[in-house]
Amino acid sequence: MATIVDTEKEAVTPDTLGPVLSAAWVLKPRHLVACIFLGTVILYINTLPLLDSTIWLDVFQGQWIVDHGVLPKSDPAQPLTDGMQIVHTNWLAQVAYGLADRWGGPRAVSNLFAALMLAYLLVLARVFYKQTGRVSLTIAGLAVTLLVGATFDLYASAEVFGQLCFALLIWVLTCMDRQTLRSESADASAAKNPGWRVWLAVVALLAIWANLHGSYLLGIAVLALHATAEGCDTAWQTRSLRATLADETFRSRLLLAEVALFATFLNPYGPMLLVENLSFLGDERLMALPRWLSLNIASPRGLVLVCSIALLAPLIKVSRRPVRVIDVLLLGFCGAAVVITGRAQGWYALAYAVVTMPYVAEVVDRLLPARPASSVIKPLTPRSFVVTLLCGLAMYCAFRLAPASRVFLGGNPRHLGDLIGSNDLMQTADFLRTNPPQGLVYASTEWSDYLVSQSGPETKALMTSNVQWVPHRIWSDHRRMATCEEGWELGMDRYAVDTLVLDKTKHAGLVKSATRSPRWWTAYENESVLVARRVASDRPAGGADTEPAGETENESPHAEVAAPVLKAE
Fold this sequence. Notes:
Blueprint: E1 20-22, H1 29-46, H2 54-68, H3 91-132, H4 135-150, H5 159-176, H6 178-184, H7 196-212, H8 216-238, H9 241-246, H10 248-263, H11 272-280, H12 284-287, H13 300-318, H14 325-340, H15 345-367, E2 377-379, H16 382-401, H17 406-409, H18 416-420, H19 423-434, E3 440-442, H20 445-454, H21 472-482, H22 488-494, E4 497-503, H23 508-516, E5 520-525, E6 529-534, H24 559-568
Parallel strand pairs: 3-4
Antiparallel strand pairs: 1-2, 4-6, 5-6
């Protein structure tokens, strides 16, 4: 057998040749567990139905902005908002969703959400790994974030833009944290204040965030809390207000929060956007929506909040890590936000995981000391080679099974009914597209969002989930109509409602009254939806098409169309 001979070294034969790799890059079973976990989460997220109807309203608004090249001065989905002040707090996210829908329909909207959610999880993984230095604890942090925040609220929505920006801000602040920097740098004084890269990153992030989603107020609040925590630490050490105000680190972080606040004014509305977002906190119309309701301690959400806080107390007791002021302020602020509105559940979950993971890491490092990473070049063993192959296989299987892969690899597209989460609602939108209403459509705010987006340009709603844009009288009348209070038909007359799209479960009373009223006839019906329209003699001028001759007021002229649908189901 031939050999390779070096005059200065010993002879090398093919038997002694083999693949070598730094020990720091050799994949181990814990990395396989991480790949399986991330692959499962990616697959699950990409198969979520688009249940949150507000995403369809964002699609509609985004397409309108793209078509006209300007922001609408009134809501094109709600004609009754003419004359009201309209401020689009997430216009850039709407444009992104609108372009995705125009490019690939609802499937592209779902894929865009999945890509943003994946980026969000990867940023969080980096934050948790920087805090703990362990892959296992990184996966634990992601699991805590998903379990606490997404157990009841994991759905596709425009809020994912804000969550991604929030995670990026936490990443920047983690890098800026004084204790983290001291452990990584011998010169702590040089890393005491945020450098120009941190300033640039925070300012740019907040400027973009303000145009993507109204949750940028949380970013401003977190920066202010960091400055407050720094001031509290300095005040406790110096026992002097003058020394606290003169502290360079405190002043630098306070100035960073102020500059970030002014950066959010770089939007089409300027400071008015801040005023509009603050007004949401006290708007009774928004707070009456299911997602904005205040927390009930006896509910599953309340139990999750109580249990998370109860678990934190013994953890801090066992851990030898000192409790930081920023941990108390951040967790207290986000916990109070959950009490005010359930919509803050996801933000609380992120803050909870970021606060608790360093304490968990201290306990684990003390009980199970980690071996120092080795940079020695070692042969790639068969075991590590198999684990590496399995990691790649796990990620490939997750990508191949996810619906997003069909864009690149082909295959049957995902059924729209599964994507939307309701076959009945999708079929109702198809009916309205082929039989467009001439007046306004009455439906729940959730269904109105979807119908105005997917039923054609002729469909206009009495009220969508943008309830903050409609006058209080319309909002009150809409709520009374939903409960079928006396005079509900007068409200329909007042607002020229031509079509009722009713949920047979939530609108049981209204369904019963509409089917019995001589002024309405059933135009379409499936298992969970009933569409009623005005009779010809009662329809306003220029009303919708009349019912066919020979049909009674409560018989559907589309019975032949609806029946096969029900049989197919």
